[in-house]
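Subject: for your reference before the review

Hello V.,

The reviewers asked for a structural picture of the protein, and I figured it would be easier to keep everything in one thread rather than splitting it across files. Below is the amino acid sequence we used in the manuscript, unchanged from the supplementary table.
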Amino acid sequence: MTGGLLALSTTALTIGVVHTLLGPDHYLPFVALARSRNWSRSRTLLVTGLCGIGHVFGSVVLGLIGLVAGIVVGRLETFEAFRGDLAATLLFSFGIVYMFWGLWRFYRPVGHSHALLHKAGISHAHPHEHRDDETDGPGSESAGGSNSGSIWIIFIIFVLGPCEPLIPLLMYPASEKNFVALFAVVLVFAVATIGTMLVVVTALSAGLKTLHLGTLERASHFLAGAAIALCGAAILFLGL
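And here is what came back from the structure prediction:
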């Protein structure tokens, strides 16, 4: 019993880490949004962690429902593949929309002036620049705002996105009615997946903070959208 549980846990740990590292969609969207939206480290990790939880436990719930309903592995994996295509399409679409919004922000006028008339009849122009965070857009971050739009979109995409390797891992302990092993597999896989996401996002975000884009800094939203769209395209067309 102990040896079998250890083997299952080790397998879940290994697959969770490798599965996450090989899927750039598990971390690049968070790194890109954190850089373009100037998220703090705590916000970046919070969003990443919540999306990771939704990503893993969406598949756990589906797998357990399938097991209770007696659905065979092949049919579950077919449905997981459909979920994967749907999530990748949504990720790609969100990236494209965000990219073009970023392009609009890059080329839009950044300032204007107000004409002021004083009591003495003297008038002058008062220049005024809009800060980046004053403009609405996909998941707009207005002054004091919270980026809730972008966060909710990414969260929903990750809930829809499947953890394909998890379903086969659930089958053996479930068929043996070994609920301790089943819980252990889910817990280890979740910790491995979410932990790897957090570590990679932290490392890449720290590296990007040292990268100065100069005049391209204003194009950070466009670049973020392009990175997200490429992640979606890689899943759809390359099967990553």
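For the response letter, the relevant points are probably these. The chain has one domain: 2-107+150-238. Strands lie at 111-117, 123-129.

Happy to draft the paragraph if you're swamped.

O.
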